[in-house]
Design a protein that fits this description.
Elements lengths: L5 H24 L5 H9 L3 H19 L1 H4 L3 H30 L5 H4 L7 H8 L12 H19 L3 H18 L9 H14 L7 H18 L6 H23 L6 H11 L1 H7 L5 H11 L4 H22 L5 H7 L6 E3 L2 E2 L2
Helix pairs in contact: 1-2, 1-3, 1-12, 1-13, 1-14, 1-15, 1-16, 3-10, 3-12, 5-8, 8-9, 8-10, 9-10, 9-12, 11-12, 14-16, 15-16
């Protein structure tokens, strides 16, 4: 481990594995029953709150390491967030909708795409996430944009009162979960700002003593596992997702502090480096198309299709990242250098 922020890449590596697992297992569980896969499907919903928390942590890093960034006006900050988040979202949505329209003309495409994009209004609504978006996982980019801007507004308004800022954001999230708790696991900016504030708070706790860190890991881990068996409504849902994100975040910090050669940590750091390409590429034209092609067109056993799809859903984006994205200066600096890319304390990208 070389960087003091390696644990962020470890956390992102775990989170992106959970994202892929959610998408693959959802396809499997739609027509099959498997208690083990269902358990890990339920277990994986910490991923989005964790990614939001990491972004909040990096917001604090950028404030601390680059005073010029921390003093950006709200307008300048919003413009930067728009270029990093909304522009890639629109470009990838248009790309995926275009691919979908082309694929619909292939033989047997009805088994893969029962809902056709045969009207202009359908295409536009898909791009703007109204319904039927073939890359629905991209909702995270505009979600993070609105969360970051909301947090910045509160930060500018409250000035140096950081404790009040964090408490206010947590209160807004808890109230939002109570208000929209029946919408199972759906996130909006008001719900998500609490996770962002929690990550922002954790920047000041990154030097926590190892024994205290172990206590936090054990406590949040137990609450997270226990919460799976409780009704995911209102405050319980918020506590469950918060404990899951905190458990992975603190476990990653603990793992990064371990002495000697750590192959698990090194592998997760590699996944963390490729987390954004995996996120943008794996769904739907690797995961969904591959799984449905194997189960509906070739009649492969669903559990085999599940394993193969999960493997290629991670492997193909990693290979594309290694041989294409990482070699493109434009893509590396702008597209994939976006919101949560950091290597050293003096080289912070936001």
């Amino acid at each position: 481990m070389k960087s003091q922020f390696d644990f962020l890449d470890i956390a992102r590596g775990i989170a992106i594995l959970a994202v892929v697992n959610i998408h693959v297992s959802a396809l499997y569980l739609a027509a099959n029953v498997n208690p083990v896969i269902y358990f890990f499907h339920q277990l994986s919903y910490f991923c989005v709150p964790l990614f939001i928390g990491i972004s909040g942590f990096l917001h604090a890093v950028s404030n601390d390491t680059n005073r010029a960034i921390s003093k950006f006006s709200l307008v300048s900050y919003t413009q930067r967030r728009f270029m990093r988040l909304i522009v890639p979202y629109l470009l990838f949505s248009i790309l995926y909708v275009s691919i979908r329209i082309c694929l619909e003309h292939l033989p047997a495409s009805g088994s893969l795409f029962p809902h056709r994009f045969n009207k202009f209004g359908t295409v536009i609504s898909a791009i703007f996430l109204v319904k039927g978006n073939p890359a629905g996982q991209l909702y995270f980019l505009p979600l993070l944009f609105f969360i970051a801007v909301l947090f910045k507004i509160l930060e500018v308004t409250l000035g140096k009162y950081r404790s009040l800022l964090i408490l206010l954001c947590l209160a807004v999230s808890i109230f939002s979960y109570c208000l929209w708790g029946d919408i199972y696991r759906s996130l909006n900016p008001l719900k998500g700002v609490g996770f962002y504030a929690a990550g922002y708070f954790m920047y000041g706790q990154r030097s926590m003593k190892p024994y205290l860190l172990r206590v936090v890991v054990v406590g949040t881990g137990c609450l997270f596992l226990f919460g799976i068996f409780l009704p995911q409504r209102a405050v319980i849902q918020f506590i469950h997702q918060s404990c899951g994100a905190a458990f992975i975040f603190c476990s990653s910090l603990l793992l990064s502090q371990s002495a000697g050669r750590n192959y698990l940590g090194t592998g997760l750091i590699g996944l963390g480096h490729a987390s954004l390409p995996i996120y943008l590429i794996h769904e739907p034209y690797i995961v969904t198309v591959l799984y449905l092609s194997m189960t509906k067109l070739i009649n492969i056993l669903p559990i085999v299709a599940f394993a193969v799809t999960a493997f290629f859903g991670i492997a193909i984006p990693i290979l594309l990242n290694m041989f294409f994205f990482a070699k493109s200066a434009f893509i590396t600096r702008w597209f994939f250098g976006g919101t949560v890319s950091i290597r050293t304390g003096s080289d912070t990208k936001i």
